[in-house]
Amino acid sequence: MSDLGPPAPELPLAEFLAAYPVVPEHRPWARHLLDRAGWEALARWLASGTVELFALWGEPTAVHAALFEPATEVLAVASLPCPEGRFPALGRLHPPAIRLERTIRDLFGLEPEGLEDRRGWLDHGRWLVRRPLAADPVPHDGTPDPYPFLPVEGEGIHEIPVGPIHAGIIEPGHFRFNAQGETVVRLEARLGWVHKGIEKRLEGSHWREAARVLGRVSGDATVAYQWAFARAVEAVSEVEPPERAVWLRALLSELERIAMHLHDIGFVCNDAAFALIHAHTGILREQLLQLCGELFGHRLMMDTILPGGIAVDLDQRGAGRLRDLTRSLASRFERLVRIYEDTPSLQDRTVTTGILAPALARRFAAGGYVGRASGRDFDCRRDLAYPPYDQLRPTIPVRREGDVNARVWIRIEEIRTSLALIARILDALPRGPLTVPVPERAGEGVGMAESFRGEVFVWLRLDGEGRILRCHPRDPSWFQWPLLEAAIENNIVADFPLCNKSFDCSYSGVDL
Amino acid sequence: MRLLLDLLAQGLQMTLVLAAAPLLVGWTRKLRARLLRRRGPDLVQPYRDLVRLLRKEPVIAHSASPYFRVAPYLVFASTWIAAALVPTYATGLMFHWATDLIAIVAFLGFARFALGLAGMDVGTAFGGIGSSREVMIASLAEPAMLLVVFTLALLAGSTQLSAIAEFLVREPVGLRVSLGLALVALLMVAIAENARIPVDNPTTHLELTMVHEAMVLEYSGRHLALIEAASALKLTAYFSLVACLFFPFGMVTSTSSPLLYPLGILAWMAKIAVLGAVLAVFETAVAKLRVFRVPEFLGGAFVLGFLGTLLLFVSRAL
């Protein structure tokens, strides 16, 4: 292990970073400017597992990493200026960084030194430009690059290519299976098929316009994206949204969580050909979405949260209807849970299928049900509590089995928690204004919000007139997709849809 | 005159199974949808689908061999023969001498072989997966099926369906353990052979979990229509088989008057409708098995069939 260099520093993250200068106007946490040696030490530190990588993104001449130290609950951003267009790869020692670094190379042309994987990630060679976000993009003729999948050797191994177009109506992703008979030896996913150029689109747009775009990065988590973005803008401007607005935001967020978890539970069961639960969760979700559509003007609650407050309100009648619906939903949902528990043929499919080892979940800092079903006890709402969750203090379910069943159970528990939270929010909804003015200020801000899938992270830099200079939304799926590949190993090919649905990673949120 | 009537009766049976097969599929789909609180497609939707497919131009992969075009006809023809041989409303029809149980199993086996080969013809990964899974299931289902045949043959002294059915109608066989075991075994085989839950899921869109659907993934147009019709015929054949062997009441025997035929047809339709309803309920109540559990399921069918045969050796009364 000589090439690892000296061991990771044995001191708290805050002390390590204190040696490096702080960038002004970065809120709410500090951003430190590292040098090459510091960045290399960071790689060793991440590999040692005491610090988690929350996000890794680029700029034309710099790379940034968001770090979290669970022991001290310290959050920080570390940056490395790279004027020569290269930086030491974190992914050499810390695998979760690999795809993010490949993305940085694709978008900015910055070279991660020492990264063995030379293939593009988002850039399949089909764009008419190379490194589109760099200061000097290079034209390209659109010829696709070759993409050799990682080789697998052994007797009787056969390849099964699946996608990016699937028989069902789902998002596009290519999955390359290497199987021995029915057993999966290796799965490699290739994404990037729905790259939309969101980061480029955001450059130069006012945050009011950007809020609409952010709500559409991954439509199933639109409330969480809007909230995380709003918090980032509010951090730059140093405004506190009014109390009623944050309580309403939490209400929308919990409604979204329930709707999406219902959807996922139904689809996991449907993939085991048990359509009964799917049919009933479909009814419950639909009733919920229809009411959301009536009360908030959009079924999925897009364009509801704005920096500085909220664009929708809830009157007494609406609150009453929500209360009635969630109450009836709670009892009907419990009946479905009993069916889930009491169907041995279904349990036979979900228990011990697609086990994700807790060590891997920890290493990848996997958020949401993927992490919590494999023992990673982290939830933004509790561990980095933001209003109103600092008062609501939700209980966070955790399991250690890491199989499909555990991921279903985390969702069941979270639906119960969210239903209880909604009742409390409706009871305690404070009165007052819905928005406060947001002064235009220059600076950098970070915002996070817990989506149904895990924490959404948004970093942005504003000029003094409310325009976005650079914005990076990081979907929780970045750290979940690679784990799916690990979880399916040694399972049978026919169980992949079940495992995939239990992860339910976002394609759109990762392809950007 | 007699010959003409006999031909008519046999022809009626052949057209009857062909005409009723899509309706049976529509009926189980409708019931299943209702059980899931859905409205479900019309009963006649499978007919519309067949007409639609027949009108469409088939798209054929570049790598397909001529066999790929021939296979659907082989599959359809042999399945139709098998389905038409199983006595539905009457025993002792013109070709009753050909209604040998083992021959019917062989016709269905040939259809499966033809389709399995076609699945591999184009050379896609899914066709290969489907064919290998289908053959794995078939190799386990057929022995179980043959043991069911033996149980019945031992009891009736013949492997001829028509003779067995007539024996069961005439003789007071009563409730027998061996027949009960054979019935359960036959139902399990029927589920596996017809690609139903829990062995396969006929409605799935997930390529990786498919068995039968994966094999026919490359087919389109009239070829697909023939394969779909063959699947419906196969389901009808198995249901008719269960009805004729275990619930033979209402069947017109060779000695009674042809005027009873309408009654026989009604009785047959009622019987397969009930079986279709049972299938829909069963399919709603269970999840699909993991692929490697299918041998255990069919192993169960084999053991039941074996016990049925064995019991008859121990005592003729069981």
Description of the molecule:
- The complex is a heterodimer of chains A (512) and B (318).
- Chain A is of the alpha+beta class and 512 residues long.
- Chain A has 18 helices and 18 strands.
- Chain A has 2 domains: 138 residues, Beta Polymerase, domain 2; 314 residues, Orthogonal Bundle (Cytochrome-c3 Hydrogenase, chain B).
- In chain A, the strands form 6 sheets. Chain A has a 5-stranded mixed beta sheet. A 4-stranded mixed beta sheet of chain A has the order 2-16-17-18. In chain A, strands 11-12-13 form a 3-stranded antiparallel beta sheet.
- In chain A, strand 5 and strand 6 form a beta hairpin.
- In chain A, helix 7 runs antiparallel to helix 15.
- Chain B has 318 residues and is an all-alpha fold.
- Chain B has 11 helices and no strands.
- In chain B, helix 3 runs parallel beside helix 9, helix 5 packs parallel to helix 11 and helix 7 packs antiparallel against helix 9.
- The longest helix of chain B has 34 residues.
- Chains A and B meet through strand 11, helix 8 and helix 10 of A and helix 5 of B.
End-to-end separation of chain B:
44 Å
* Total separate domains of chain B: 1
Q: Largest contact between protein chains?
A: A-B, 32 and 29 residues
The largest β sheet of chain B comes out as: none
CATH topology of the largest domain in chain A: Cytochrome-c3 Hydrogenase, chain B
Spans of chain B of 5+ residues with little confidence (pLDDT < 50)? none
Helix content estimate of chain A: 40-55%
- The computed structural class of chain A is alpha+beta
Q: What portion of residues of chain A belong to β-strands?
A: 15-25%
**Outline of chain B:** globular
CATH architecture of the largest domain in chain A: Orthogonal Bundle
The radius of gyration computed from the alpha-carbon positions of chain B, rounded to a whole number of angstroms, is: 19 Å
Overall number of strands of chain B: 0
Uncertain ranges of chain A = none
Trace the largest sheet of chain A across and list its strands. Answer: 1-3-6-5-4
Structural domains of chain A: how many: 2
Strand content of chain B: under 5%
Q: Choose one word for the global shape of chain A.
A: globular
